[in-house]
Every structure is written in C-alpha cells, then in structure tokens.
Amino acid sequence: VAAVAAGRKPNTLVTVSWLNHPGTLEDVSILDARSYEEYLAGHIPGAVHINWQAECCSDEGQPQTDPDIMVPVFEKKGIEADKPVVVYDGGTGSGSAGTAALVWWLLALHGHTQPLILEGGWPAWSAAGGEEELYEPCPLKLCTTFETTYQPQHVVPADAGDGAAQGDGAVVVRVDQGLLQAVHTGEAPTSLSELWALLQPAGGTQAGQEVPDASQRVVFVGDGNDGTRRHAQLAAMCFCAALWRGLGGGANWALAWALQ
C-alpha cells in the first residue's frame, strides 16, 4: 500500500528505510498479507504469513470482529500487545492490494496500540534491495499471549446506517475506491485538509465544512455490491482510517461495514 510521511515519526505509516534501519527488524513483528505462494517465493526476514480470507473473515465474508476468534490468530502469529507490528501487502495492481490496511484495522480493533503499514509494500522493499528469506518461522516458536482491550469504537454495526452513526454526534463520510487508487499511485494526501477534500460527507456536500478535530467521532462508510468492489472498498476505508490517524486526526475514528 502506498503512503506518505517519509521521515515522520512512525505513526501508522512507515517507510522501507525506517524498517530497514539496523536493529529495527528485531524490534518489530512483521505480517505478510500477500498470497501464501508469494510469501514462499520470498518475504521480509522474520515476516509471518497471514491469510486475510481464511483467517480474518467470517463465513459471510465480513471482517472478523469476534475477539474469541481473532485473538488466537494473532497469538499463533507471534503478535504481542507491547511490540509494534508492521503489515505489508503486494502493492499497486496486485491481488493483495489493500490487505495490509485491512489487517492493520483488525489489529487496532482488537486492542493493539502500535499497528503499522509499510509504505509501498513488498515492491518497495524489493526495489530498495531489502533482504529476502524463503523459509517460514517455526510455529512452536511463534506462539505468544495477546492481552489487550477490545476497542469497539473502531466499528459501527453493519445495520446501523448513517442516521444511527450520526446519532452520537459523529461526522459520517463516504469513501470511494478513488481514494485507494490515489494512494496506490503515490498521490496520497499529506495533511488532514487534503484528505478531507477527498471525502464526501454522507447526505450532502462538503462546501463550508471544517475538518473534524480529534474530539469528534468520524465514521467512514462505503458501498459495494460484488466481491472485488467490496474488497477494494473495505481496503479504501481502512486505509483512509489509517491515514486519518497517521495525520493526527484519528482519536475517534470508526468504520461502518454497512456495505450493499
């Protein structure tokens, strides 16, 4: 997933140079959200594969919001509550584009305080000459205890609708696939005002509306009616939330899975 913020203190979005700095790989956990075949062909040293569809979705294809199911998955991957987690995918044009943002959101929802997304994903790492490894870590050495507090403010029930979300004073905005395309082509916003200009408040235009501050609840919603579009929409929503938080406006953000 493409991003912004080169040189900025890590806060949701990190660069290849940051991750490749001596000692950093040993200080973070890394999740590879590409296909298993791509993972086996070469991955960032120490990365553990996570299968978005099989391990992070419900039988209905919705993101898995049940801690009783997701926490054991994170523990199996060696994720610890007090250790940063960097997630990456296959980047622009790949079948896994956007999955890093989806996994990032699940980590935040389930209480991890330092989930991070790698700017540019695997293509950026490879282009920079980053080391690769082919083998998988031993599963017995990965198991950890993932003790966190579930963060329900990061999700809105699928049947809540815009009105219910706005009932608690939230600013509801719709995210379309154009935002995901923008960040994939290296045109991601670099400020809250730029990001706000790309979003459409539900039920009206944006003219004259100010960017919500960190005290306001912002709910990101999207629409989709087929598998491919739906996945891209979810990824765009997650990346939008990641960007929102990374740019300093994410104290009360949430995602609404009311897709049609």
Helix/strand layout:
Elements: E1 13-14, H1 16-19, H2 24-27, E2 29-32, H3 36-41, E3 48-49, H4 52-56, H5 67-76, E4 85-88, H6 99-109, E5 115-118, H7 121-127, H8 139-142, E6 155-156, H9 161-166, E7 171-174, H10 177-184, H11 192-198, E8 200-201, E9 218-221, H12 227-246, E10 253-256
Parallel strand pairs: 1-5, 2-3, 2-4, 4-5, 6-10, 7-9, 9-10
Antiparallel strand pairs: 7-8
Helix pairs in contact: 6-12, 10-12
Highlighted features:
single chain; 260 residues; alpha/beta; five-stranded parallel beta sheet; five-stranded mixed beta sheet; 12 helices; 10 strands; 12% strand; globular
Q: Care to describe what's here?
A:
The chain has twelve helices and ten strands. It is of the alpha/beta class and 260 residues long. The strands form two sheets. The chain has a five-stranded parallel beta sheet. A five-stranded mixed beta sheet has the order 6-10-9-7-8. The two termini are 25 Å apart. Strand 2, helix 3 and strand 3 form a beta-alpha-beta unit.
What's a concise summary of this model?
The chain has 260 residues and is α/β, with parallel strands linked by helices. It has twelve helices and ten strands.
Instruction: Specify the overall morphology.
Output: globular
Q: How many helical stretches?
A: 12
**Assembly classification:** single chain
Number of E-state strands: 10
Q: Roughly what is the average pLDDT, rounded to an integer?
A: 79
From the alpha carbons, calculate the radius of gyration and give it in angstroms. Answer: 17 Å
Helicity, as a percent range: 25-40%
Q: Return residue spans where pLDDT drops below 50 for at least 5 consecutive residues.
A: 1-10
Tell me the β content: 5-15%
How do the strands of the widest beta sheet line up side by side? 1-5-4-2-3
Secondary structure category: alpha/beta
The major β-sheet equals: 5 strands, parallel
Order of helices and strands: EHHEHEHHEHEHHEHEHHEEHE
- The end-to-end distance, rounded to whole angstroms, is 25 Å
